[in-house]
Amino acid sequence: MEQFSTWSKNQGIVSNARVENTPYAGYGLFATKDSCNNPVVHVPFSALLSSQKAIQKGPFAETLQILYKLNSLDEIAQIYEKQVICLFLIYCQFFDETTEWKSYMDILPSIAFFKQNHPLFNLQYLQGTSLEHSVRAKLHKLRKELEMINQANSNWLSKIDIEMYKWADCVFWSRVVGIGSAAASEASVTSNMVLVPYFDFANHSANSPNMRWQPTLDGGIDLVTYPDMVKEGDELLLSYGSKPNQELLFLHCFCVENNPNSSCFTLPASPFLNPEDDPLNIPKIRWLKHAGVKPTLNLSRSVKDTELLDIGWAYESIIVMYLVAMNENDGIQFSLDKEENVQLHIKGKKITTLEALEQVTNGMRLLPVIQLRVIMLLIDALQYQYSMNTDHAMIDETPIAKQALVYRNEEKALLESALQTLSKLSDKLMKDEIVIEYLENTQ
């Protein structure tokens, strides 16, 4: 830390705060006096680490020209912005002891830290949750990227392993700040993503942040406290934004108890559209793809429980489930146009969008029946997800276990609430005259 402090001063960073260890989040910033002088911290443009800064010169830049097969460094920095910063972090941390950024690299969290705290290194603690799918997708993406990087004709690129690459990704997303174009002409930065030494000591508060950050005319960043909110010794806290625990855990390794921002539970629609269950699912899948609809259902917290379209499910999710629940007896038909694209017709009317699908479905006499089918499908799926969440819970004293349990319990509460609401709507629809008539005729 002493070396970093000296380095910071040499970089022009000015601080009226002190850095201390916290019992819950590593380092933190603390006020040195009441109503701490503003700005608390000033980080000039020269101390910001962007892709343009990383790729300016030296063997690192030459390596990336080989990797991306582009001669223009500016073009590489803009097109591969995030990856350039991640590779620069790896290069400085593991392959170049002489870099001018070494003092900053030395105070960054280690691989060992992320192995104790981050979901990318601890997928087992998220088994059975919605976040498990997101982490698996991220791991798959990182491995595919690393395969391409390892194949480059460069000695150090070929030596990067998946743990190094995951480490860089964790550092990047837990510390990156989006600043856009700098105001000062001398800065001439077009990067949206930068790492900001010293600034990144500041921890998050969802409910009571006492400072904020703002860009400066020289292209740098200031940390500024709110008036009359800071006493000597107080921790200086930022708001990372209105982020749910799902995002906080995925990016920053922690959750907030009683977070006012609800996580969103995601459910893949593919199990409802298994071609082996019904051949009609094949054109349904193709139509959704052609219409540009993602086959994912999204559920968030809701205080309403009166109608299917206002109980926490995203609008698109329910309309997709309308399509899932309908069959040929409801007047649904598919055909191919000249370009072999699937066309959907319902009772002779061509449907090209989810909005048109909703309009036609709402006009059908059997709408209550279709809605009941949707509800029963969703109840089955959520009951399965709830049991998966419960069965795979892992409880121990590791930091990631404690944070994952906060998220897991929040997701369980969301599923419980959704199941109760769906059951109420199911009971209501079972008393509908059209549903009663349909069921009698079916029997």
CATH superfamily of the largest domain: set domain protein methyltransferase, domain 1
Mean pLDDT score: 89
Structural class: alpha+beta
Largest sheet: 4 strands, antiparallel
Q: Quick one: overall form?
A: globular
Number of domains: 2
Give the percentage of residues in beta strands.
5-15%
GO molecular function, one term: protein-lysine N-methyltransferase activity
Task: Describe the model.
- The protein has 443 residues and is an alpha+beta fold.
- The chain folds into 2 domains: 2-248, set domain protein methyltransferase, domain 1 (Alpha-Beta Complex), CATH 3.90.1410.10; 265-442, no CATH class.
- It has 16 helices and 16 strands.
- It has a 4-stranded antiparallel sheet, with no helix packed on it.
- Strand 2 (17-22) and strand 3 (26-31) form a beta hairpin.
- Helix 14 runs antiparallel to helix 15.
- The longest helix is centred in the C-terminal third of the chain and has 32 residues, at 399-430.
- The radius of gyration is 27 Å and the shape is globular.
- It starts with a helix and ends with a helix.
- One of its GO terms (molecular function) is protein-lysine N-methyltransferase activity.
What key phrases describe this protein's structure?
alpha+beta, 443 residues, 4-stranded antiparallel β-sheet, 4-stranded mixed β-sheet, single chain, set domain protein methyltransferase, domain 1
